[in-house]
Amino acid sequence: MFLEKKTFNDFLTSPEGIASNILTNRLKSLVNHKIINFKLNPLNKKVKWYYLTDIGAESFPVVIEMIKWSIRNLNNDFGPHSIKWFEQNTKESNKITSDKAISDYKIFRKKLLNDSKNQS
Amino acid sequence: MFLEKKTFNDFLTSPEGIASNILTNRLKSLVNHKIINFKLNPLNKKVKWYYLTDIGAESFPVVIEMIKWSIRNLNNDFGPHSIKWFEQNTKESNKITSDKAISDYKIFRKKLLNDSKNQS
């Protein structure tokens, strides 16, 4: 979701390879905890567009520390998004990186919610 | 473990209220990923003393960001350890807080491992 993925299928086909039933439970739990929410795709009401609430978006600093820890300590392959974030973090403070990421995310979300309103 | 808890029973009786089978799986998984390890209690070989490896201890910054996020965004009751960390973080940088926490943890771990060696 931080990478602006928004549908069940986007998450299901992500490189993490999460099982469909576990993904369903996680999304329900995150909605119940008000960390994420969803709008129906106005062109296909069967598809939910998930997005981070403000509370969810505020967890960016946690994700940034996780990425930094993973890159330093685990022998995984990392995608270009993670590597880019890591490189930024060696140049600027976490606070600046996460404030930027949160602000970018909110622009993406605003567009998503407006699209949805205009067409429904 | 960050709070210097070390036995299965310490974790099981923690306020999180984790189920015994899930705790068993988590501990196995963390040992397999070399994030934690254990020594047998020299006075009771049935009891494992779990501790964070260097890789595990390096995840303190992630935990600090999680605590800060939780205190800001969730309506949970927090224990004295979490509140203390949060208060420190308003005064000093995350880097200083986590470096201190890692260094304190390594002193605890050294004592744990030496105890074990002396008596086994």
Protein traits:
homodimer, 120 residues, alpha+beta, Arc Repressor Mutant, subunit A, two-stranded antiparallel ribbon, 2 strands, globular
**Mean pLDDT score of chain A:** 85
The domain count of chain A comes to 1
* Major beta-sheet overview of chain A: 2 strands, antiparallel
- The 3D shape of chain A can be described as globular
Helix content of chain A: 55-70%
This entry's quaternary arrangement is: homodimer
> Would you tell me which CATH topology of chain A applies?
Arc Repressor Mutant, subunit A
- Radius of gyration of chain A, in angstroms, nearest whole number: 15 Å
- Total beta strands of chain A: 2
Query: Greatest interface and its residue counts?
Result: A-B, 15 and 15 residues
Helix and strand composition category of chain A: alpha+beta
Going by CATH, the architecture of chain A would be: Orthogonal Bundle
Low-confidence stretches of chain A: none
Query: What is the succession of H and E elements of chain A?
Result: HHEEHHHH
What's the total helix number of chain A?
Answer: 6
* Strand residue percentage of chain A: 5-15%
Give the CA-CA distance, first to last residue of chain A.
Answer: 23 Å
